[in-house]
Amino acid sequence: MVTRANEVLSVSELAQRIPAGDERFLLGIAGPPGAGKSTLAQRLRDELAEAGRPAVVAPMDGYHLRNQVLLARNAMGRKGEPDTFDVAAFVADLRLLRETPVGSPVPWPLFDRAIDEPTDGGVIVRDERIVVVEGNYLLLTDAEAPGWAEVRGQLDACWYLDAPRPVLTERLLHRHTAGGRTPEQASRKVTDSDLRNADLIAASRHRADLVLTAAGRGYRLN
Ligand SMILES: Nc1ncnc2c1ncn2[C@@H]1O[C@H](COP(=O)(O)OP(=O)(O)OP(=O)(O)O)[C@@H](O)[C@H]1O
Ligand SMILES: [Mg+2]
């Protein structure tokens, strides 16, 4: 498919870029915190469902280490950084998804923001051929964070969703204050944690098959 820079694609046009076939297809959506990855993944799933192509969202977020583990490692303050995830389990489950025939169940954990912990088997992938895997670190190499390089090999394609820094900042500040932090705490979390992670993630952008930024109801190709 021809890709023209600055072209704005609808979610339906993006869905059409996912090839037809019988084998399971894993599409990654990488990008910085607050870029809109979860939103795009859900929109794609809904669009694919309408087109008679069952799809499911399998977020990377469910592989957060539990708070008890982070506390024991004195890493609670760094929650969200690459080494605060169980990347080995994530890679193993991606491989399991690829190896399991469509129609057989594969449980997938979800992250529950209300309790700030993962929930095992939050979603069961079964009849969906297309799996949209979304998360921050899908395109990292081991030089950036040990263990993460194996993720890309388990994905059939990986897109990168970007957003301007001021947009990310505003969304993240809003999320953290809505989640109960004071404006000062929210601001510190954004500068000390989220935007530092965003810098690491930005270094992996060039590895994406497609780079997108939201534009109205659509997504602009970069
Ligand atoms: N295309 C869009 N246009 C306008 N607002 C959007 C768009 N996509 C997402 N948003 C808003 O941006 C915020 C962050 O979106 P979302 O939770 O999907 O980001 P994310 O990349 O999954 O973040 P995280 O990495 O932290 O999970 C939400 O408030 C969402 O409503
Ligand atoms: Mg998300």
UniProtKB/TrEMBL annotation:
Molecular functions (GO terms): kinase activity
Keyword Transferase set for record: yes
InterPro entries for the chain: P-loop_NTPase
Keyword set includes Kinase: yes
Keywords: Kinase, Transferase
Protein name (Swiss-Prot/TrEMBL): Pantothenate kinase
Taxonomy of the source species: Bacteria, Bacillati, Actinomycetota, Actinomycetes, Mycobacteriales
